[in-house]
Structure formats: C-alpha cells, structure tokens
Amino acid sequence: MKRKIIELGRLLYQKDLTSATSGNISYRSGNKVYITATGTALGFLDENNIVEIDMEGKEFNSQEKASSEKFMHLAIYKIRKDIKAIIHCHAPFTTAFAACRKELSAPIIAENILYFGKIPVAEYGMPSSKKLTENTSKLFQEYDTVLMANHGIVVGGDDLMNAFFKLETAETYAKTYIYSKILNEQAFLSNQDIDDLYILKNKLHSK
Asked: Most C-beta atoms within 10 A of its C-beta, which of 64, 72, 132, 172?
C-alpha cells in the first residue's frame, strides 16, 4: 500500500495537482490508516514518508510524524465507512474556487451532475485545527468532494485511484468553468437536461 501512495503522489505532482510540501494522502485498511508524513512533498515520497496510525491517531514504528491534518482524515473515515482513500491537495483551479469561497455547482457540463451534483465549500478553519476538521468532515455525510475555504480540496474514494479520478474530474470542471467565464458565453444545461442526467446516473448505478 505504501508503494501505491508513493505512485499516486508522483502522479498528482506530474498532473500539477500538488506542489512543494502541500497536501496529504491516506488509505484506510481495517483499523489502520497509512498517511503521508508532515512536511513531505507528495511528488517525492519514499516509504519512510508513509506513517501508520490507528483510528485515534496513534503512530506506530515511524521515524516521521503523520500529517498534521490526520484528524481530518480520521474524522471522514469515521463518518463514511465506504471511503477507503482520501486526497487533500491545493490543485490550482479548484483551490481558486476555495479561495473565493465559491461552491462548484453551475450546470455547464454533464460531469458535474453525474459525478458531484455540486461541490460545496466548508467554512474556514485554521489548517490542522479542530475547527477545520469539524467543518470539512461534516460535509462528507452527503458529499465525496469538498472545497475548504481559502485552503484547497479534499476528495474521498473507495480506493486511491477512485479518489484520484474524482479529484482530476473536479479540477477539470473548475478549469472549464473559469475558461468559459473568460469567454463570457456560458450556456447552462436546462432543468430538463439536468433531470435526464440524473435518470442516466441512476441507470448507471443500478447496473
């Protein structure tokens, strides 16, 4: 599992979804969580940078400290038993929305309906704080992808690649929205278009 987290970190870096030492990745296996160490660059991880913790945050046999935002990851895992992997990063386009405290909900492409419905913004909390943990994790009762005001984005999935695909899709959605605003010719999907997409989504999930 450590190797998969390392590979994902490099992929995030190659895709310009993370920079320097920002962001963190975790994976839950039973009552154990593998999470990146504090102050590490996701694009340049090694196995020593992956810390094993329990569901209360206790660290095991590690020379490095777990991410300072480990309690946010743990709170999400406790709320959502179906989530096995979490990515938090400062991807530039989605983080632009977070910096504006603006949710991603405009119906300009089918993907935001099929994948998200909307991507809400959690109220601001100091990085690594209890307030940040509470404000962000509670939105995972309803959503898999959440913007953190003036901070970044958090995505949960049933495995690492599923979380990555959601992150990449959200970033593309945000980029498309911004470019369409520059062109100043946004054309929103109609209510009927949206209803049809939800019908399609239900059919796809029922298979």
From this structure: 72
